[in-house]
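G., the chain you wanted modeled:
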Amino acid sequence: INVVERMILSVDHHEVERLRDKVDFEIQRILPKKVIFDFKGVRFMDSAGIGFILGRYKTINVYGGKVEIINVNEKIKRIFNMAGISKIIEIKDDSLNDNLNSLKQIS
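Predicted structure as tokens:
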């Protein structure tokens, strides 16, 4: 089972606490093999968003799972590249429609 979180328009310090509680709860409840963050529609992300993604990467690694990021626009992709996230987390242009049979959506 995979967990998918559809990210909102802005991934900033205002939203990160809510996202962190929700995603961490689902990770502990389901123990997924993969957590997928769908960035379709995200236009802004600050350092809190980077910390959120890295924190979930560390959390899911404890359970032997992986993190994947999909549907990232060029602006957000540059942020991930500058932060080094693209070196440790797979970033794909894939749509969720390719994986519907294996997804557990939590949004």
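The chain has three helices and seven strands.

Shout if anything looks off.
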